[in-house]
Amino acid sequence: MDVSLTDYGLAVECVCFTCLMARSRTGTSSLPAVFMLFFFSIAVAAAAGGTVHGFFLDESSLGYRILWPFTLVVMGITALAGVHVATALHFSRSKAIPINRIALAVFIAYSAIVLFIRSDFLIAILDYLPALVFVGVAFLLSYLRQRKPRFLIGFLGVSTMLFAAVAQQAKLGINPRYFNHNALYHLLQAIALFMIFLAAREAIISREPIN
Predict the structure, then answer these.
(1) How many separate domains does the chain show?
(2) How far is CA 187 from CA 74, 93, 98, 144, in A?
(3) Could you say which of 95, 99, 148, 177 has the lowest number of CB atoms within 10 Å?
(4) CA–CA dist 20, 22 (Å, integer)
(5) What is the pLDDT of residues 135-149, one digit of tens each?
(6) What is the structure's pLDDT at 184?
(7) Domain for residue 127, yes or no?
(8) Nearest one of 96, 3, 84, 81 to 37, comparing CA atoms
(9) Range of the domain at 14
(10) Rounded to 5 degrees, what are φ and ψ at 26?
């Protein structure tokens, strides 16, 4: 139950972030849209994952066989959105397009793997770790260029997400019965995503023209 509740809490948080990003949309920048996709995909994956953990733990059940692969595919969308965030922050459109196309090809290959070959959580982590690192580097470069603290907070948020992934795989939790490694993973993600949201707002507000 702890895993489902923290998953649902994460979903609610990210829906709120998505709505706040929607209010920041402009006609001249793609950043609000890609940040919306980033947060909303996490919300959908968390809601689906929470439903699996709460109601469909039996791997032979129809709910598990539908919702778990769906959860992993949506996590792939999060990774794809992360790449788009990083390219929107630091590359011109002409330079961003080939990078984003490579990310799309990786997403297609990843989806095929989780749908037809392996559908364990480690595959999802291996898929989104490079995208998270890319976002973290983008925030760090933004901080070094503009010296705005929220970009550094965003970098620390990404670092927290990476630590959470490692802790989850190492099965580090507070209590194996009441707050296990998956619940702790969700809690750390919630904290990290708030930090990333702060950086996202700063990025939209202080958007610099790209030469």
Answers:
(1) 1
(2) 20, 35, 35, 29
(3) 177
(4) 5
(5) 999 999 999 999 999
(6) 94
(7) yes
(8) 81
(9) 2-205
(10) -130, 170
Tokens 């809601």 sit on residue: 47
d(C-alpha 45, C-alpha 53), whole Å: 12
CA distances from 130 to 22, 171, 175, 210 (A): 26, 21, 30, 24
Residue 82 lies in a domain: yes
Q: Which pair of structure tokens corresponds to residue 77?
A: 């969308």
Residue 210 counted as domain residue? no
Residues 84, 34 contacting (CB under 8 angstroms): yes
pLDDT at 28: 61
Inter-axis angle of helices 181-205 and 149-169, to 10 degrees? 160
Residue position matching structure tokens 């999060």: 78
Contacts of 167 (CB under 8 A, 6+ apart): 181, 184, 185, 188
Distance of alpha carbon 161 from alpha carbon 155, whole angstroms: 10
Strand partners, 107: none
DSSP secondary-structure letter at 176? T
Q: Considering the domain boundaries, does residue 211 fall inside one?
A: no
Distance CA 189, CA 126 (A): 16
- Rounded to the nearest 5 percent, the helix, strand and coil shares of the chain are 80, 0, 20
Evaluate if pTM is beyond 0.70: yes
C-alpha 61/C-alpha 201 separation (Å) is: 41
Q: Which residue numbers in the chain have pLDDT < 50?
A: 208-211
| CATH label of the domain that carries residue 166 | 1.20.1070
